[in-house]
Amino acid sequence: MTGAKKKKKSMLWGKMHTPQCEDIIQWCRRRLPILDWAPHYNLKENLLPDTVSGIMLAVQQVTQGLAFAVLSSVHPVFGLYGSLFPAIIYAIFGMGRHVATGTFALTSLISANAVERIVPQNIQNLTTPSNTSVMGLSDFEMQRIHVAVAVSFLGGVIQVAMFVLQLGSATFVVTEPVISAMTTGAATHVVTSQVKYLLGMKMPYISGPLGFFYIYAYVFENIKSVRLEALLLSLLSIVVLVLVKELNEQFKRKIKVVLPVDLVLIIAASFACYCTNMENTYGLEVVGHIPQGIPSPRAPPMNILSAVITEAFGVALVGYVASLALAQGSAKKFKYSIDDNQEFLAHGLSNIVSSFFFCIPSAAAMGRTAGLYSTGAKTQVACLISCIFVLIVIYAIGPLLYWLPMCVLASIIVVGLKGMLIQFRDLKKYWNVDKIDCGIWVSTYVFTICFAANVGLLFGVVCTIAIVIGRFPRAMTLSIKNMKEMEFKVKTEMDSETLQQVKIISINNPLVFLNAKKFYTDLMNIIQKENSCNQPLDDISKCEQNTLLNSLSNGNCNEEVSQSCPNEKCSLILDCSGFTFFDYSGVSMLVEVYMDCKGRSVDVLLAHCTASLIKGMTYYGNLDSEKPIFFESVSAAISHIHSNKNLSKLSDHSEV
Predict the structure, then answer these.
(1) In sequence order, what E strands does 282-370 have?
(2) What is the pTM of this model?
(3) Distances (CA, A) of 634 to 377, 572, 590, 592, 608
(4) Where are the transmembrane segments (predicted)?
């Protein structure tokens, strides 16, 4: 008997721990998403739009690569490398089909803190060009890129460690208002860092707490040192960029290919500077020598990792949060799913592998991702095609950019941050939906401005959690003492045909960012399980009330929702009397449920809604104004369904 148990136990152990071929294939597809979509790539339908998008993306990658390398306090050529290798790695491991990874303003700004602290500007005169340096650059430039590379490497290691710990599921605590405020504040910092180039001023590097205000104080104290030529050229560049991009946006439906104004401006400015010798005549600062080719890979310096750990954490968290927000927006827009933990792995490997090729920290950028949207990109093939053109620039066109004025490059950075800066408009919707979220936005932005992006992000998360913990004790569960009477009323007043189409679901907890995803998952599971067209009448007539959101654990969205009856429309009544409070994420999830069910021919009616909930949902989403969806009670909602059923029957008889 004992031998049989041991044999059975060993067989179970063998089945449990012996990986099957199918398991390995499934694991590879899960960790290498390119193996999932590449074999099914449709050349006929997708290659042309991906090629056009790739060309346009390459223009953005080159211009932003040069600009963000300067922002990171390293030589511009390293920005070109940072536009190449991270995009290739993310295309293999990333799940966002429209996410353009490369150099990023926020991570460059954080990296610059470490570069300027460890290799300050005042030691430049002590170094000389060396024949042993990479690409003929000075020892000073190589010391600086080594610091930036160390930040990139350690930041990638932190991201991979978070992937191993499966911390992607904890990102739900980073709410949309916090991300919006943090990115807006960081964009304001980036614009401030470019003021010295826009004005043509010589300015020492200023950072640290309240550094934002010290920069403007220095500018006003030394306002006489502004170069008028640089200021005029900056203003002209900004006006041209904004005007042409607005025209591209207005006429994007009529023209298939938008004008690459960034590239045109770079070529025109470089040519004008070369012909007029602006560098010597007017004293304008130019990009300078850009080496050709790609250097041999080299391991990041391990001896300075401990000195850059603060910046590495900032790069890991800020870069991931900003990139994940873009990936989630892309997935929501184009109806596919992403794995938060897999994104940790993709961005972590992008930073680690790229650090061996002298790349500054990378992440996804809003401007490039929006560019992929507008040009009709289909897959990550667009990013891979852009890498081909970036290679052409590195090997052939790069040296021609010697004469590019720095004030023009700064103008491109400022205009490229427009998408982040206009997030100030989000304040209005947060105020109308949930004033506490509006307060979190303002406070997070202020902390980001006064300190740094990573500090603002941390403050926003802590503040959000503290407020939710303070609000949850006021939550009351829903009383169900009158449910039997309501069920009896439904059975007696309504015919069985209509009764089969009604589902009444009760929500007995607040709906906030902590449980918004689980609310969606639970609701879709109930619809999938119970809203079957072929259920027996006895089972349907029960009209059981289902309670949701009994825990605050995060859930994953289940996209496989059963379709409604082909001939009859189903109705779903959400009893919202259990909503003690809600936030912006909760309202957006309710609107998403409404729109999702509407697309599946399921009418959604909300009962016992507070005035603030009605106002928030009406303001947030384009709800159907022709059909009432808010009712004072569940009985009123049922009566509405009943009256609509009778009207449809009368119209059918009149047609006959």
Answers:
(1) 362-364
(2) 0.76
(3) 45, 11, 17, 21, 7
(4) 145-165, 203-220, 226-245, 257-277, 304-327, 379-397, 402-424, 444-469
